[in-house]
Each structure stands twice: as C-alpha cells, then as structure tokens.
Amino acid sequence: MSFAISSRILPSLLAAGLIAGPALAKDDAIGTPKRKQLVIVSFDGAHDNLLWEKSRAMAKRTGAHFTYFLSCTFLFPKDERAKYQAPHEKRGRSNVGFAPDREDTILRLGEIWLAKLEGHDIGSHGCGHFDGGKWSADDWKAEFAFFHEALKNGWQNAGVGEREPADWQRFVKEDIKGFRAPYLSAGNGLVKALEANGFTYDASLVSKGPAMPVASGAIARFALPLVPEGDAQRPVIAMDYNLYVRHSKGKEKPEKSAAFEDSALKAYRDAFAKQYDGDRIPLQLGFHFVEMNAGAYWRALDRFLTETCGEKDVACVSYVEAMDILAKEKRATGAAL
Fold first, then answer.
1. Given CB 3.0 to 4.6 Å as the disulfide criterion, which of 38, 80, 110, 138 pairs with 282?
2. Alpha-carbon span 28 to 51, nearest angstrom
3. Cα–Cα dist 62/42, whole Å
C-alpha cells in the first residue's frame, strides 16, 4: 500500500517547485468555455481479486475509468517468493507479500486483462512495496525490469501459457505508462529510471491542493492533493489510508464506519465543488485494495462517483486519459501542460 508521505518529503517537493498551478484561467467576461473537470481515481496494490471485481463494477455503474497501480509480487505465489530480489533487500522479501497460490495469480491476470479491455489504465507500483527514497536510478531500473518480466511472463509463470490473450505482449510492452512510488517516496533516481523504461507519467507527488501536472524531463508528474476534511477542515492527503489514520489512528473502528464514510464523502464533494466552480484543476483521489474502516472510503467513493461522473463537463478518467485530454487542451490553447 502507498500509505502516507513522510513529513520530510513534502516540504522538499514544494520547495523544489514541482507543484504547478492551473493551465487555463476561469471563464472570462466574454464567456470563454471552461475546460472539463477531470476526476482521476487510482488504486494502489491491485491485488485482492474480489476488489478487482468490485471496482470494475463500480466503474461500469458510474461511467468512470480508473488507474490500477499493480504491485508485481502478487503475480507470484508465496512458494515462489525466492524469484524476487528487491534492491538492498534479502531475496524473497516483500513488504506486501505474494499471492497465496497459483490459482489466485491466474485470477488476477484475468482481472488485469478485463480491466484493460474495459478502458482502464494499468500502471506500476513496483513490486515489493519498499521505500525507494534513497534508491539510485539503477536500483529503480532493476525494480522496473523485474516488474516488466513478471507481467510479460505472467501467464507462462502461472503454468497457463495457453490462456494468454493474443494482445498481451503488446499490452505489456506499450501500455504500461504510469507509476506511483510506494509510500509516495520517490527519491532523486526515479525520473531517470522512468525515462529509461518508457514511462510517460509519475503519480508520486503531493501538493498543497489540486495541481496541474508538471514536466520533469520526459515525465509528467502528478500530485495527490491535500484537501480540507472534518469539522476542523484540517488538510489531509486525498487518499484512503491517510483518512484511515486521521479517523482511527490506523486501527479498525467498524462501529464508526458510517460517520467516517460521510466525512470522507463531504471532503471529496467540497474539493470537487471548489474546482468545478473555479479553475477546474483535475481532482485526484487515491485508494488501496483494502476496505479500511469496514469499507467507509470505498463506499464514499462509490457515492461520490455516482453523483459526480454524470454531471455536465465532468470526465472521470484514468491518468492516461487525463494526459491525452490535457495535451489536447495544450494544443488548442497554447497553455502549458
């Protein structure tokens, strides 16, 4: 899981000037049309097969497309853990574990393919969910190489190579365009490694509020925003785990699940309304394949998307789709991405 960004990372990101403002201004006096309001929802980990099914059903109901940041150790059963070697870690170690068995892996490969066919974006969350804040570019390249090989050979490794979809190899080679760092901890070596491995965007930053992506070399960098939440309207990263820590100190409190759901939903609604009525900067919301506090944040997301995605001039899109939309705006207006 991506969990909270550490207090030492956020100030450096802000000081480095990596957070950008809106590319287009509000409507002017002569009625220049506003851009579409983009809502970008992503899931980190992408492991539990029941939550693959649940999220895909949510997307179908609401008309949303998601980005799934996959942790690749879930493409190996735990009895094959020794195949994985993370940078600077013992062989076979993973902070998030592995698949319980081969059948679980096969089901996950099928879910990945169905999501791809349904228009969702599959990205990388690395493999073993380690803090790469001090990793070199070569460390990241090693992690990306293992991710790529794990996905490329997934069906063969699972012993069902005959089930591999005909377009699978092209998908793995050409369609994995995005990355989010575990713990949102990227480090100085990441961008160079992303460029070398054909990625086009990174979603590992955090911003003071909704922000436009910024270019770092050939990589577009997106930031999860801090949004006001709760009675005190204290800022919190717009991610389910951060709300979980805010609401219950990271411990399950199912008896308060409904209250946590309502508070999260209000934060999502307020952050959306501020942008929809204002500069229409894309709103990014992050989630995990874990239903924390008895599913409070997934239920809030479902309600939010149900009431939001059908509104006028709203598009609930993946990161890849957002990149395309923003690029078209740039060409049409001459504004910066």
1. 38
2. 44
3. 15
Give the C-alpha separation, 315 to 309, whole Å: 6
CA 117/CA 173 separation, integer angstroms: 16
336 bridge partner residues: none
Report residue 245 as tokens: 């820590």
- The burial class, CB within 10 Å (0-12 / 13-18 / 19+), for 64 is buried
Q: What angle do CA 123, 297, 179 make, to 5 degrees?
A: 15
What DSSP line would sit under 244-290, residue for residue?
HHHHHTTS--GGGHHHHHHHHHHHHHHHHHHHHTTT-PPEEEEEESS
Kind of pairing, strands 234-237 and 219-229?
Answer: antiparallel
Residues 89-122 pLDDT 10s: 999 999 999 999 999 999 999 999 999 999 999 9
Residue 157 has pLDDT above 80, yes or no: yes
The CA-to-CA distance between both ends of the chain, in Å, stands at 29
Give the DSSP letter of residue 99. B
Euclidean distance between CA atoms 259 and 300, whole angstroms: 10
DSSP secondary structure code for residue 32 in this structure: P
Beta bridge partners of 289: none
Are 222 and 18 contacting, i.e. CB atoms less than 8 angstroms apart?
no
pLDDT of residue 77 exceeding 70, the answer is yes
pLDDT at res. 269? 98
